[in-house]
Amino acid sequence: MEDDTLLAHAGRKPFENYGIVNPPVYHASTVLFPTLEAFQSAATAKVKYGRRGTPTSFALEEAVAKLEGAHGAVALPSGLAAITTALMACTKAGDNVLITDSSYAPTRQFMDNLLVRFGVSATYYDPTIGADIDGLIRDNTSVVWTECPGSQTFEMQDIPAIAKAAKARGAIVMMDNTWSGGYFCKPLALGVDISVQAGTKYIVGHSDTMMGTVACNEATYQRVHDTMGYLGIAPGPDDVYLALRGLRTMGVRLRQHHEAGLKIARWLSQRPEVERVMHPGLESDPGHAIWKRDFTGASGLFGFVLKSDRHEAVAAMMDSLRYHGMGYSWGGFESLLIPTSPQKARSATQWDPAGQTFRIHVGLEDPDDLIADLADGLQRFNDAL
Ligand SMILES: *Cc1c(COP(=O)(O)O)cnc(C)c1O
Questions:
Q1: How far apart are CA 207 and CA 210, in angstroms?
Q2: What are the mean pLDDT values of the chain's consecutive 10-residue runs (385 residues total)?
Q3: Pocket test for ligand 1, best of 76, 176, 201, 207 (most atoms within 8 A of CB)
Q4: How do the domains of the chain map onto residue ranges?
């Protein structure tokens, strides 16, 4: 089944619910058992208590598992909850985790401030390390964490090479797959054990709900599922419903983000104010060959660096944008532009261009309107230099 067909059908069972196309939103804490016998065998029941999932959350989990080509998936209340649950499920005191230096900054904060207190150490590595990751793997390396492309700086990682080296040493490989939505990249087919997404971004797609997903192979599913149970975190049913609703249209949205994002990345790379554009879909990008090999498209999120970081010029550009909002998160229908400081969340590699770095999310507006907005902004930037 092709992905667009899967997105329209996966996780739906209309004829278990009067033929209604979408699953009902089950609001549940207590679940009643009809007999003492049923009550006493509750542990093996699929639906037993609100926190342990309902047919609403099972529908999302089933759809995401199919999309990612996984044995099973779990839904969690945020992308960060998905990351922390996956990491806790696969580490114990004394273990070491290898983490890409380009990882989402809160992943790093979780490792450095919380997991370290439970005796798990973190070693950060250059995202472009590829097969040389082998030199960092020790006997106590339990997890190799990847994110592709990297947050803010968009380096591509050679996931198959990293996965091969890690597997040979018995380490579990995880990838933050938020950028591709699970649509443009299938980490499990590249050798990854666990693919994590901030569903908040492209699955939800409308900037109105937080969601996280962890898609697991057979060897890791049960412990991730159990860890979620131990931690007692479960997404609310209305949020799960909104994620399912978003998922149905993710393919068409992502194709539009791909087209418009590349158009704007190409336009930016021709502008004299722009020092460099970080978008793996550009032929000139150092990660382009890997992207072409492992991805079938690009989302609307990428980075660029301007030639100056003069505060007045950056403010003049940012403060009067018409269509590009300034705020955290991304993956919704609307365009966003924020200045970033990648050097603040690095320890194994340097990020030191002279000018200001930005992260742009190209939304679903007409790309020519977005280009006009950016052109006016760059004019204000120039005038204030
Ligand atoms: C936003 C984001 C997350 C965290 O998702 P939340 O739902 O905001 O917790 C994780 N990884 C990446 C790459 C992100 O961009």
A1: 8
A2: 96 96 97 96 93 97 98 98 98 98 98 98 98 98 98 98 98 98 98 98 98 98 98 97 98 98 98 98 98 98 98 98 98 98 96 96 98 98 96
A3: 201
A4: 3-248, 251-384
